[in-house]
Amino acid sequence: MMKSNRYKKGVTVMEMLVVLVIIGMLSLMAMPTFFAFTKNARLKGAARMISSSLRNARSYAITQRAIYTVDISLSSESFLMMETITAVKRIYASDTGIIDIRNYSGSDSGSVGGSGTITFNPDGTAASTFTENSIRVYDPAGRYIEIKVYPATGSVKTGDIGQDI
Q: Which residues of 33-65 are buried (b: 16+ CB within 10 A; e: fewer)?
């Protein structure tokens, strides 16, 4: 007697639906984490861009034996790196996803208007017109990253999200 080929090995429609439901549920659970990651990455990237420009200005000042200044305009939310008078690079905050750059004055609000400069000398030291030599970069949700320049050494330190330095 021959066995019927009617019951071949394979996947039933019901098994396929169960797998699709499981994949859908896992995707829904992962979405909030993914969106939080992209928000954090945008804020960190913007702060990294500003602190990188500050570090580059310090490096240029030492290697070129010239004074380099980073001018940060709080009202137009942009920053400009200059060698004494010649402009090297202007970057607008809107291009980086920053909503706000503020002078950090020890309070949570900080000042929004005006501008300030951070000047790097050929010996590596720095001078700043910002209160406490510190600025904060904010995202639309109000989260911030603080960037601090230490005048005696010219070193630039970038904090973590919502963390004071």
A: eeeeeeeeeebbebbbbbbebbbbbbebbbeee
Residue type at 81 in one-letter notation: M
Residue 124 Cα to chain centre, angstroms? 24
Does the domain spanning 14-158 belong to CATH 3.40.50.10540? no
Across the chain, which has 165 residues, the per-10-residue mean pLDDT values are 64 91 91 80 84 89 88 67 56 49 52 70 90 81 88 93 73
CA angle 54, 59, 64 (to 5 degrees): 125
Q: At which residue do the structure tokens 């400009």 appear? A: 80
Question: pTM (2 decimals)?
Answer: 0.67
